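Customer escalation, tier 2.

The customer says the design service returned an amino acid string that "doesn't look like it belongs to this structure." They asked us to rerun it and document both sides in this ticket. The original structure tokens are below, unchanged.
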């Protein structure tokens, strides 16, 4: 269910690392918990982010949720298509519903993130409580 080429955080973000860049989004679990997403606030291109720093929000009919950067980097691109179609996150959270692309400044931080199996175990534990 969770793509094995992504790394995951305990805050339910994912990152796909390709060379010096990382594409960031929220997981299927997160979008499912939020419900129908109606608005997304994303950072400006050029903003420097530290690992764990809040960089925007996802708003659903149920709640507003902060989005955290899985690693440190500079925002190289944000997904402007989400301004007109935030529901894309609900439909394709690990693909077309990506949020930002980062120019990675500390690649070693990726090693501290969960792989798909670890994330699956983490959310299974949450569902049991």
């Amino acid at each position: 269910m969770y793509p094995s080429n992504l790394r995951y955080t305990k805050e339910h973000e994912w990152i796909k690392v390709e060379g010096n860049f990382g594409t960031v989004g929220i997981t299927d679990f997160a979008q499912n918990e939020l419900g129908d997403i109606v608005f997304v606030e994303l950072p400006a291109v050029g903003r420097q982010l530290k690992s764990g720093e809040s960089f925007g929000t996802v708003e659903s009919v149920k709640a507003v949720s902060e989005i955290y950067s899985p690693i440190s980097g500079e925002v190289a691109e944000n997904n402007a298509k989400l301004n007109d179609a935030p529901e894309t996150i609900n439909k394709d959270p690990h693909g077309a519903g990506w949020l930002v692309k980062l120019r990675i400044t500390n690649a070693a931080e990726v090693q501290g993130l969960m792989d798909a199996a670890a994330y699956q175990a983490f959310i299974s534990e949450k569902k049991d409580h």
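Tier 2 assessment: The sequence is consistent with the input. The chain has a mean pLDDT of 96. Residues 7-128 form a domain with the OB fold (Dihydrolipoamide Acetyltransferase, E2P) fold (CATH 2.40.50.100). Sent an explanation to the customer and offered a walkthrough call.
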